[in-house]
Specification:
Length: about 325
């Protein structure tokens, strides 16, 4: 029998004994599916484990900076168009890379262990974010509260958590999972999901045909060459192009990836895609079947405007 190898679960931080020929497996402790590639090697023992006093001092020093890694970017919800996103993400990473490396070291060296440290750091961040949001002058008006929360969710979902994974920090998955879990415990109705930079990058860089329609059909399990996508692509490459609407098409390619990112990482995807289908895509598809290209064009433009209103405060 081949000698077992030791790996660390990226989600809960527990050590696992794994047969070397097993490329994918479930953690015995938390049940998450992981691979040998994503599981971390066992780190060398840390000689400089923090004392309780040092841990408390470092936490107090990290708290305002970690809060600032979210609250200093209220306008990043306006930087999700393709022409802005990569510059905004690069700037965000440059600002906060060092901080998150310090957070990673803090979690690894905490005297109570990684899970307790992650809950402590993320718990304080959620508490501080709650105080920040309720202290915002807009919070006095219920109609404005959604905007305040959305600005925070965008940074958490599309900038902070993707950056942490992109940096390949040893405690990245533990931090992401814990922050997400504690946020939902505090704000169960304000859903967001940890983002992945590679997924976002592909979505922005690929000139994906019919972005929103493609995302909706993909979510529903439909093939890339299904009847709807085929019809919409023919409409775009045929009638719409013949009308000289190239500027409209380019504007759509710029805005659509950010709208899809908001839908998938800053909202409940299932009801969101259902509304898009019922309110926009089905009427557009029926219009195409009836030969009413202008009605399809108008409805599709309205869809983008409505999504912008919802996700671009």
């Amino acid at each position: 029998m081949a000698e077992m190898i030791t790996r660390v679960c990226p989600h809960c931080g527990k050590e696992l004994q794994v047969p070397p020929e097993l490329q994918e497996f479930s953690c015995l402790y938390c049940g998450q599916r992981i691979t040998l590639e994503t599981a971390s090697p066992v780190a060398a023992p840390e000689e400089d484990v923090l004392s309780a006093e040092e841990a408390q001092q470092q936490l107090e020093a990290l708290r305002p900076r970690l809060l600032g890694s979210v609250t200093r970017y209220p306008k990043h919800c306006e930087k999700l168009a393709k022409k802005h996103f990569f510059t905004a993400f690069e700037g965000y990473e440059n600002d906060n890379r060092g901080l998150m490396k310090e957070v990673d070291a803090y979690i690894r060296k905490h005297p109570q262990g990684r899970e307790a440290a992650a809950r402590l750091v993320c718990g304080k961040l959620v508490e501080d974010l709650e105080q920040h949001m309720t202290g915002d002058r807009r919070w006095r008006w219920k109609a404005q509260r959604g905007n305040v929360v959305f600005e925070v969710k965008v940074v958490l979902a599309i900038f902070l958590t993707p950056m942490v994974r992109k940096l390949k920090l040893e405690t990245a998955e533990l931090f992401r999972d814990t922050l997400h879990k504690l946020w939902l415990e505090k704000f169960p109705k304000d859903v967001w999901y940890p983002g992945d930079y590679e997924v976002l990058e592909k979505g922005y860089k690929k000139r994906k045909l019919c972005y929103i329609t493609t995302a909706t059909c993909r979510y529903e399990g439909k093939a890339d060459d299904c009847a709807e996508l085929t019809a919409f692509r023919a409409f775009r490459d045929g009638w719409l192009t013949e009308q000289g609407d190239t500027a409209l098409i380019e504007e759509y390619y710029d805005k659509a990836p950010g709208l899809v990112a908001c839908l998938e990482f800053c909202d409940e995807a299932e009801p969101g895609y259902r509304r898009i289908r019922e309110d926009y895509l089905l009427p557009c598809y029926r219009a195409l079947q009836q030969g009413d290209n202008e009605a399809c064009r108008s409805r599709y433009i309205q869809m983008v405007k409505d999504l912008e209103t919802k996700y671009s405060h």
